[in-house]
Amino acid sequence: MPDIRLATFNCENLMMRCDFARSGLANARSRLTNVDDALIAEQVDAVFDVLSEDDRTLTAQALVATHAEVCALQEVENLVTLTAFDNRYVSRWAGRPFGERVLHEGNDSRGIDVGLLSSLPIVFQRSHARATFGRLGIHPPRGTSVNDYVFRRDCLEVDIEKDGRQLTLFICHFKSMHGGRKRTVAVREAEAQAVRRVISQRFQNPAEAEWVILGDFNDYWEVDGRPARPHGLGPLVGDGFAVDLASRAIANPYERWTHHYSGDDTYGALDHIFLSPRLAALNPAASVEIVRAGSPYRAERYDGIRFPGVGWVTPKASDHCPMVTTLKFEGRLAAP
Q: How far, in Å, CA of 166 to CA of 122, rounded?
């Protein structure tokens, strides 16, 4: 069986602008939205501003520290931004870029999307950003209709190939808790139901198929081992449809956190890697690593070594920590 080193990371507002003014082309800063613009900017040595140079350097360091072959990303502006980040920042620390990149424009009003970086071949990709409650047969939460899009960003479906075998990933970024966790939980629950429906449509027997759901789900069912209800992830974990890898692999509940909210000093597990029952059975001893070296110093629970340049609030790699695991999979045979 091949194995795959797989990570998920919310990069926190990975956005890019190109300062053509500083390159002498025009007296304006342009939002790069297509590859042609990016190529022009490269040719004239235009100045790329990916938020803070220090932040983006730390983001790349945290990502490279996972040693992942494939990384699901959240909060990326567009494919041009993802490409520039891979070429200009990741390659600086890894020695080479991932090379394979996937991103489809989603539904977020701020323009933050889910994406994928991979050093392995991507043989299939599909966005579910345009899936509606009606099309998926999901009851819409209050304030929405059957014609509204289910996913606040997207559910990105990708098949990765290694050693002639294919594994399917579903990359998500659920509705934030902005407006209150309890007031927004129904939206995340609907998204979880939709992910389950998408998987059930793809695989005739999901429990016996091999797939991974991963990303930032903006919700948790426990904080430091104490139940935290209500939560919106029941459709994924409530009846064993999927297995939360961190809950199984990290015995100490105080060590499962991937995000620190300074407002009430909560250390929560917002980021998850969910395995199909079949894949979980193939990996009974799979471990999970959470890279916290890019966390700001105000996340005081972490007392390990940090990357040079990390500050109390900023600079930092992100407000989330990347999570990584190595999984064995049998997968599906690639087409000849």
A: 9
